[in-house]
Specification:
Elements lengths: L2 H19 L14 H20 L4 E6 L13 E6 L8 E8 L4 E7 L1 H6 L6 E8 L2 H12 L1 H6 L19 H13 L9 H10 L5 E4 L20 H5 L2 E4 L2 H11 L4 E8 L2 E6 L15 E4 L2
Helix pairs in contact: 4-6, 6-7
Length: 298
């Protein structure tokens, strides 16, 4: 084997490893359909999530789910939206950006909570996080989210799963939500109605996106149509990282911006549901910690 051949073989192996690690980013592949028992368990889990929403006394919540398997890059949650009690689609439906694979374009979509929870790729262990926003901040976000014109005004034309938060080139689902927070919370006189204005406000407010150390995954931009790197700063790419809006960064920002914001995390594994209250993370493996509530689905 010549040096050139060895190099080519090594690059192929590296690319194969990167692709193997990126299984979770293939969200346009048809997911495995949960069997009847798993669907029943997830629907029962959804009912508990909706009970938490109703018991909060609030009219909306930021809601995140463990959709794609991103644990290998340190993220439990991949997808976030706004759960609205007054949604015309049904109480606690989730307004969100999603990528329409057939149309190859992003859309704003109102989805019932059951469909949102069923979107997880790991039906055996599902996680949901709820952040409740009371007072003026919650009311302002509710008004903005229920306004179709304003929600659609922040919809970008091109989707990228790893969109850079301070560029207009692309947008991912969580970045749309970050910009909705800017639109809702910027206050009178801030003139936040466009994506550019929202991103400027986020910068000024100190919004810090999630830093993902991805290394070889950057190679996938040439092969996967919903992953791009041309919008990211060259220094970030040289360091093997992407800065991206993720549920984790949205929750951190909401906690800093809204005094009194509260969080509830729920998980379901088998016939057990664990409810964890507070800003610390629920244990991996859906294991109950001190003070956690444990419910059975049977």
């Amino acid at each position: 084997m010549t040096p050139t051949t060895r190099l080519a073989a090594a690059l192929c192996l590296l690319l194969a490893a990167a692709v193997a690690r990126a299984d979770s980013l293939r969200f346009c592949d048809t997911p495995k359909e949960p069997d009847a028992a798993e669907q029943d368990a997830l629907l029962r889990f959804t009912a508990i999530v909706k009970d938490e929403l109703a018991a909060s006394g609030q009219d909306l919540a930021l809601v995140s789910r463990s959709g794609l398997n991103l644990q290998r890059i340190g993220q439990r949650y991949s997808h976030a939206g706004i759960s609205l009690k007054a949604s015309a689609n049904g109480a606690w439906s989730v307004r969100q950006l999603y990528y329409a694979c057939d149309e190859k374009k992003p859309r704003i979509f109102d989805q019932g909570m059951a469909g949102f929870v069923l979107g997880t790729s790991d039906v055996a262990t599902a996680y949901v996080s709820l952040v409740f926003l009371s007072g003026d901040a919650g009311a302002a976000l509710e008004r903005a989210a229920l306004d179709d014109r304003r929600s659609l005004a922040l919809l970008g034309a091109s989707y990228s799963a790893n969109a850079y938060p301070f560029s207009l080139e692309y947008q991912n689902c969580n970045q749309w939500l970050a910009e909705m927070l800017a639109l809702a919370w910027s206050g009178p006189g801030a003139d936040v109605e466009t994506r550019a204005q929202a991103q400027q406000w986020l910068r000024l407010e100190g919004y810090v996106p999630t830093s993902l150390q991805v290394g070889l995954l950057m190679l996938l931009g040439a092969f996967v149509p919903w992953i791009h790197g041309d919008d990211h700063p060259s220094a970030d790419k040289a360091a093997g990282r992407y800065r991206v809006s993720m549920p984790e960064s949205l929750e951190r920002f909401a906690r800093a911006e809204v005094p009194g914001a509260t969080r509830v995390e729920l998980c379901r594994s088998g016939s057990r549901v664990v409810i964890h209250r507070g800003w610390t993370a629920l244990a991996d493996g859906c294991e109950a910690g001190k003070g956690d509530e444990v419910l059975g689905l049977d």
